[in-house]
Design a protein that fits this description.
The chain is of the alpha/beta class. It has a single domain (4-124), classed as Rossmann fold, CATH 3.40.50.2300. Helix content is 44%, strand content 19%. The protein contains five helices and five strands; from the N terminus they run βαβαβαβαβα. The chain has helices at 12-24, 35-45, 61-70, 90-97, 112-124, and strands at residues 4-8, 28-32, 49-52, 78-83, 101-104. It has a five-stranded parallel β-sheet with strand order 2-1-3-4-5, with helices on both faces. The chain is globular, with a radius of gyration of 13 Å. The modification 4-aspartylphosphate is found at residue 53. Pfam families: Response_reg. It comes from Geojedonia litorea.
């Protein structure tokens, strides 16, 4: 059975695409459209993977990542920043905040799931 994935993403089109791609690969999807709901669902549902947008309306993904890393989230949970932030230092900042991986938008629908799975497999080694 595939793991559950919490997607924290405020853009409906991005949420739809990520959910669709992951559901087609038999992942269980949990959706949050803002940071507050994302943190609550992460703590309640304890997903194996969290896909986290950095630009959210109520708090940025770095803050969410920091809170999740220190607030009752299983250490086995893998957090992957999925963001259009592609400026110098943004990837490093995501890792410093506690992310385990980083995927730039726009995502490639043909390779996204394998990119995510590669991050998961590397983290579990």
């Amino acid at each position: 059975m595939k793991p559950s994935v919490l997607i924290i993403e405020d853009n409906e089109q991005n949420m739809y695409m990520l959910s669709y791609l992951l559901e087609q690969s038999n992942y269980n999807i949990i959706q949050a459209y803002n940071g507050e709901d994302g943190i609550r669902l992460a703590c309640d549902k304890q997903p194996e993977v969290i896909l986290l947008d950095i630009q959210l309306p109520d708090m940025d993904g770095y803050e969410i990542c920091n809170k999740l890393s220190f607030d009752g989230l299983s250490k086995k949970t893998i957090i992957i920043a999925v963001t259009s932030y592609a400026m110098g230092g943004d990837k490093e900042r995501a890792f410093e905040a506690g992310a385990d991986g980083y995927i730039e938008k726009p995502i490639n629908p043909e390779t996204f799931v394998s990119q995510m799975e590669q991050i998961i497999n590397n983290k579990r080694k």
